[in-house]
Write a sequence for this structure.
């Protein structure tokens, strides 16, 4: 198993390959490999998604994926 930490200024749902897997700013456990990570709707964030190859992580050393708030 691998671990990610999705950083965003607000609490949002995190989607991995289209399935809700957790929330921003919390460590999420997922399978290793390449995945599409996004925050769903509304799409007021950038980038629209990330597609990292996740490997070599640990619960206390997750892969950090940062998203920024886009103000309309």
């Amino acid at each position: 198993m691998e671990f990610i930490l999705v950083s965003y200024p607000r609490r949002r749902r995190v989607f991995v390959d289209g399935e809700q897997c957790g929330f921003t700013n919390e460590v999420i456990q997922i399978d290793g490999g390449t995945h599409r990570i996004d925050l769903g709707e509304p799409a007021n964030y950038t980038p629209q998604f990330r597609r990292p190859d996740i490997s070599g992580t640990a619960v206390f050393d997750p892969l950090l994926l940062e998203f920024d708030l886009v103000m309309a």
The domain at 2-69 is CATH 2.60.40 (Immunoglobulin-like).
